[in-house]
Amino acid sequence: MVEIVRTNDLVMVGFLQSLLENANIPVLVADAHMSALEGMIGAFPRRLLVPDDDADQARRLIREAGLEAELRHG
Q1: Cα(55)–Cα(50) distance, integer angstroms
Q2: Element (H or E) spanning 4, and its range?
Q3: How far apart are CA 52 and CA 31, in angstroms?
Q4: 24-40: string of b/e by CB count within 10 Å (b at 16+)?
Q5: Residue 39 carries which DSSP code?
Q6: Top-confidence residue, 60 or 45
Q7: 4 Cβ neighbours under 8 A, 6+ residues apart
Q8: What are the tens digits of pLDDT across the range 4-30?
Q9: Total domain count for the chain?
Q10: Rounded to an integer, what distance in angstroms lies between the CA atom of residue 34 and that of residue 41?
Q11: Segment holding 57, helix H or strand E
Q12: Out of the domains of life, which is the source (predicted)?
């Protein structure tokens, strides 16, 4: 699994998850349950992870959606 996005923006997480899943790219939202520990203050960013083999396609889709600034480099 490769981390492609890290953000505190829950709307962004939902949008990107939907975008990738609609393209049949499996997505794992890591740290999604940290809100129970942090009290919903947004201190811990959520991470979107995709399988290594799907990372290039996922990045391409995110760029095409105009959200290249959200991508993690690596």
Answers
A1: 6
A2: strand 2-7
A3: 19
A4: ebebebeeeeeeeeeee
A5: T
A6: 60
A7: 48, 49, 50, 55, 58, 59, 62, 71, 72
A8: 999 988 899 999 999 999 999 999 999
A9: 1
A10: 10
A11: helix 55-64
A12: Bacteria
